[in-house]
Amino acid sequence: MNNSLFIFLVIALVIIIILGILLVLFFMHKEKQPSKSNPAKTPKISNIEDFISKANNASNSQEIQALILQFLNSQKLGSNPKDSATKRKLDFISAISANANATPKNISFLNNELKKRYKALKKEIDAYEQIGLAKRKMRQF
After folding, report:
1. Taking a C-beta distance cutoff of 8 angstroms, is the pair 31, 7 a contact?
2. Is the Cβ–Cβ distance between 93 and 129 less than 8 Å?
3. pTM, rounded to two decimals
4. How far is CA 57 from CA 10, 13, 77, 101, in A?
5. How far is residue 44 from each of residues 21, 120, 130, measured CA to CA in Å?
6. 106 vs 64: CA distance, rounded Å
7. Interatomic CA distance for residues 98 and 76, integer angstroms
8. For residue 96, what are the CA distances in angstroms to 30, 57, 64?
9. Separation in Å, CA 115 to CA 17, 18, 120
10. In whole angstroms, what is the distance from residue 91 CA to residue 129 CA?
11. What is the pLDDT of residues 16-46, one digit of tens each?
């Protein structure tokens, strides 16, 4: 009798431990899923006009950072700074810099990444950043 009770308790303990492990794994997996769905919530933007519009209207630095990452991954700047398409894409830098919700970290990240990728456009990247910062100061006053 004592022996069968002991075996029953050991089996019950093993089942409880297995169920505990399964519950922990279930809750850990559940917490990871929302973080994967966050990038899916931001719609894909391909048009430079949409990027500039979103940059002007972004309401917080996380939204701006997501927009910057999307811009860096999808847009390519031309090597000629006088090209109208390149100028329009550089306007995105100005729009980000002018946004009052953009942190210095956001602006610095965008400019440093663009300077790494487009060494020939360093002066123009700096100039458009300064234009955006000037617009930002004008809006504050």
Report:
1. no
2. yes
3. 0.68
4. 62, 58, 23, 9
5. 39, 28, 28
6. 7
7. 21
8. 35, 10, 8
9. 55, 54, 8
10. 9
11. 999 989 888 888 876 665 544 444 455 677 7
